[in-house]
Fold each of these.
Amino acid sequence: MAGEKSGEKKLKSLFTAEQIQQRVRQIASEIDQQYAGRSVHLVCVLKGACIFLADILRHLRLETSVDFICVWSYEQGATSSGEVRITKDLDHSIAGRDVILVEDIVDTGLTLNYLCQLLLRRNPQSLRVATLLDKPSRRIQPVKLDYVGFEIPDHFVVGYGLDYQQRYRNLPDICLLPDAEESERV
Ligand code: IMP
């Protein structure tokens, strides 16, 4: 069960901090093997992927560099519209680099599709995608995911960097948002 803060409802844990760490270690080791002898440039999508990035980075043994991009996805009801605004762009060029885009969750796929197209126009040597969570049943736009932490059903989740109205990012577990709150987002 996720840690309960005073005044907050109990949230049901979907993945514990230990389960997440184990999976993140596996993904880092896969990346280490696949990029052996090369360096990898991690592009973290803020804000939700910040904790996933920090953990994966600590497990990687490769030479790494990091940059951040912050996006705002406009919503139509509960679903992203595919219209994305970059609120903070990368600080460094990705031309000629082996880039891994690090995402928190892929839902409709619209945001990721926009980001991949944007990054590919900047001529990286290669581009792969690592996402902590994948909700395949919600997909509108097909996207290729190279590293997936966990596949989840169509539930809104929070914790480990993921938010609901900027809350809950600090929870160590990934938790299901109670139905009452979830229905408010529609
Ligand atoms: P997409 O464009 O529909 O794939 O939306 C991706 C973005 O929506 C993610 O980067 C999250 O910011 C947000 N999102 C989608 N599902 C969830 C969820 O269950 N919890 C928290 N954020 C979510």
Amino acid sequence: MKTYKIACIPGDGIGKEVVPAGQTVLEALAATQNEFAFEFTSFDWGGDYFRQHGVMMPENGLDALRNQDAILFGSAGDPHIPDHITLWGLRLKICQGFDQYANVRPTRILPGIDAPLKRCKPQDLDWVIVRENSEGEYAGVGGRAHQGHPIEVATDLSVMTRAGVERIMRYAFKLAQSRPRKLLTVVTKSNAQRHAMVMWDEIALQISKEFPDVTWDKELVDACTARMVNRPASLDTLVATNLHADILSDLAAALAGSLGIAPTGNIDPERRYPSMFEPIHGSAFDIMGKGLANPVGTFWSCVMLLEHLGENAAAAALMAAIEQVTANPTLHTRDLGGSATTADVTQAVCAQIAQPQAQRKAA
Ligand code: ATP
């Protein structure tokens, strides 16, 4: 029997509620079969750790994660610590330290979810957004000078490398090729950003030649927001820069019904390092500790984690269990208009997982 080592980093706010919930459903899944088990190690990094130690995670923290098979992450954010410290000190430190250059965000309208686009049938919205996760606008290159003086200057330089763009384009084309519609939209802004984004477009064209069976088009990022709302079925797989995809995927999550549902994976496609899976929502301090957090985004992230480990049957079983639960409005949390708690949803998903397969299909 295989044992997968999973690092759990709940982080801050509702991360401390949804990550243990994710661990519970993974354990329930492991209990249904004899092929694999999980060994979880929890790390108490985040805002509280910062208050004690002055850093979000230890200097050698990456070494503790290096030999794990995957990481399940909650969220990083604290009302008393500047956002750039919580973000760069933990989540980005792991993403960049482990060169998790592909951030992958599937979006679908799950059964039972009342999504805001009334003209859109659930089957019309089935996207995967691939976000460049290692450079671009969030490369961290820039600085400030003359601080506090009238001539103060601040820069954030967007850095795109040919190698960085080629690898994310190749990943996106490959992902599009693996999906039934074999359709990729390359999001760009080369009309206004006339250097790096023009190279981005050129590289898209170059890589497309390796994937003759993938149909692809280009869309300006601003036009893409309107297309997501007006013509959702015209999109399937999208690839965009770090900043553009950051924004588009929050829009995608909202169009799918709630921020609480959406998952993401920070992937090292070459598998040199562990990849990290997390719900896309933040720490949501307004609801923390009240049992109101929707754990579905974390459960869907666990599905992605299982797929990454190659446990496709278990991933499909978990996704089916999630969809059975979302289909039942009495199991909706407050963000979806219901009154179920994090624990109610977690127990319901575990109960679905524990049902024999035949019964689950019939349910
Ligand atoms: P951060 O600064 O860490 O990004 P935030 O509070 O600014 O956090 P989010 O955590 O992403 O932003 O959430 C915005 C709002 O969406 C929250 O105030 C919360 O009400 C709601 N929300 C987010 N995630 C969930 C969830 N899993 N379940 C229920 N509501 C959620």
Amino acid sequence: MTSDPRTTSAQAAVLEVKDLRVSYTSGKEILKGISFEVGPEDFVAIIGPSGAGKSTLIRCVNRLVEPTGGQVEFLGQDLLQLNEADMRRQRRNIGMIFQEFNLIDRLSVMDNVLTGRLGYMGNLRSLFRLYGKDDIAQAVQLLDRVGLIDHLDKRADALSGGQRQRVGIARALIQAPKLLLVDEPTSALDPKIAREVMGMIRGIAREFKVPVLCNIHDVDLALEFCDRVIGLQDGIKKFDGPPSSVDKHALADIYAMEVL
Ligand code: ADP
């Protein structure tokens, strides 16, 4: 039987965003009908000027920001149609890495990673943070993978910025996510550490076979580490293609500059 290539690619997509629209309470439309797909092996960078809506777009996917229109199909299910309980269950499958790391400072590195398992636990076990042996073994393994095995007992606030982001990476991975959302992972880091962190996210995405959607304002990092680039400007998708086709004209269009 021959298959419709469009259907095949739609089935292969992990995430399909269609005509996504967002207005905050101020009423101004921030995302003005964004559509794109993320395939199972994609590492997609979202670039664009400050205020273009990159962070809003990332946060709409797991409904940290509530879209006002469109569809967010994740593994074939429109997340915008889910009730709160079903959305909570789906959030387990979507790992998130944040700009400010979002760690709990007074907890150990190990406990911070283990919080990534809370979504899988019943109310009582999660209230008392009663993690299973398997979770603990996996946290140790992931901390080893991100190079923090010697720091697992330290309080999170005793670590450097780069180390804190690696805790954030391990915490996202212990969820066994089917998609990673990454929101400005390097803007709190100096350039050398920023490259290390991006390299680690890319290496891990490949190793764990998890697609990534990454908001990153640093174009050089986006071009170096990602294999697809979406350019946003004022809530509109201006570009969608491989890094090799991001030339000065594409950048001028995304950043609304004149080509010199
Ligand atoms: P980017 O990540 O591209 O810098 P953002 O998604 O953070 O852009 O912001 C897009 C626009 O939405 C900006 O004009 C910003 O001021 C506005 N915005 C972001 N968050 C909120 C919010 N919680 N309430 C109202 N406006 C917001």
Amino acid sequence: MIPKISTLSGYLHEYQKSVANPTGFWSNIAETFYWRKPWVKTLDWNFDEPKIEWFKEGKLNITENIFERHLFLRGNQPAIIWEPNDPEEPNRIFTYRQLYEEVNKFAHVLQSMGVKKGDRVAIYLPMIPELAIAMLACARIGAIHSIVFAGFSAKALADRNNDAQAKILITADGGYRGDKTIPLKETADAALEMSTSVEKMIVVKRTGVPVNMKENRDVWWHEMMTGKPVSFEPVTMDAEDPLFILYTSGSTGKPKGVLHTTGGYMVYTAYTFKNVFQYRSNDVYFCAADIGWITGHSYIIYGPLLEGAISLMFEGIPTYPAPDRYWQIIEKYKVNEFYTSPTAIRALLAQGEEWVDKYEMPSLRVLGTVGEPINEEAWHWYHDHVGKGRCPIVDTWWQTETGGIMISPLAGIVPTKPAYATLPLPGVRPVIVNQEGEKLYGKNVEGNLCIEFPWPGMARTLWGDHKRFKEAYFSTFPGLYFTGDGVKRDEDGYYRILGRIDDVINVSGHRLGTAEIENALNEHPLVAESAVVGMPHDIKGQGIYAYVVAPERPEGLEDELRQSLIKGVSKLISPIAKPDQIQFVDALPKTRSGKIMRRILRKIATGSDDFGDTSTLTNPEIVDKIIKGYEKLNQ
Ligand code: WTA
């Protein structure tokens, strides 16, 4: 069994141990899993190339650690409880044995379609059980899954599939989200028009809308599953064999294919799940994220299932059919741990207290948040109205690249403080550095958040682009992993995450690169250039503010042009990337070397007029004009 910390002094002790002897610390935890062959070296690393290898030459299959490890004791216990979008529709519950059999059947399907170890399988599915089955079946046969959030456009899906050179795409006829039906198959068809590698498409029937099945390319999930055997010998994987690719946005250029490997990710997600949430056997745990993002990968599927937990998977949204949907689910299933995002909390807070106050939710023991800084108002509301003042809040800081939670209280053990992620988990060594790269020690310091020592769950590379991996994370401050976040350490030694300090914006907890949105805006024939920055937003945390240079725009038709730009962004990326505000400007403030001065544009979009030095601009006069335009637009 994975060791569980249960007291504050226990935490401090484990932390000390993990720093003094990291390899001893992690190998003790790793030994609690099934290995087909033990590792020969616990860690081999340097942050220069960079090279990170954990549990070197160890052999395993992660699904064997989910299923075979738990079947004897938990075969008849639910693994996944699936709650549909529509509360009137029956739920679906999969015990460990049933899930195991479905995964094995689908592993046979993949194999029969020619998928082999190392092949990439793209998954573009709504939050239905087949998503969990598909990803685990990939892991069972050693194929690398690349899950694309079902809100992404055809172009975004095609770009990811092309980068990963995915062989197969798994989708559904459609998906339900609140009162909307999403035509996924149609989008997948359009993506395949642009695809350079996908040979076959497997389609799950979810909504029953008529779809076009292309002969010799498209097959139905349910037809393929018929008659497949319920056992499948798991493929032996090296600890460092890839488990999955997950695309995420960075400061520049196209999305990055973050690559996670098998052994380290397994050990890290299971350990952090158990300790952060203080999961107890037979608890019902509900993470309301989407599996299309890292939170769903690590804390709906891998972490909980590796621990033999009961993981609740919800298809819908918090406000459908009414803004008490989460509370209803929590009461219905007697949920013990609940994990969501600050955005969801703010959205529900805005609906009024009456929606939550009528639910007692006595089963709740732990509340978690992730994805963006949580403001104090939302923290208190969550604590008082959802947790009724009884439940500790674990504000968990981490990233797609970190694989699992890095800085967070352990529930009920590390005292919490509103808006603080508090202390690093054992094995995690954060450092704060200033712009010059000097480490800032002690209390009450603020700067760039870096990590100075590897942990098992960290990303190993970017798919097909190790150079970019090095540049993005290990070059800003040589010898350190740079997170892209600003952070403060207070007088208690507690960490407070201040948000991104690069050109990534965090909209409703979704990471978006400003460059991606600019590229999409610039595709419009009337747009000469654009600059996108984040702006404060009451519900979303950050909104998207776009400055657009469109000198030939027809007079009086600015709103029409705005609408057409917004449509363009939805089509090229996703509706989540739509600008909240578009300001037309004559020019963008630029330095002599032609770089856009984003610092100034960011300030203007927050309504500030404290710009610091503008003397390095080639066109300082434009700043006043942009401010006037901002005031007019936002009065
Ligand atoms: C932000 C999500 C403040 C941060 C798991 C990070 C947070 C980015 C928190 C990663 C938190 C995540 N407090 N900020 N508790 N958790 N973030 O890759 O800016 O989608 O760099 O991973 O979200 O977003 P990603």
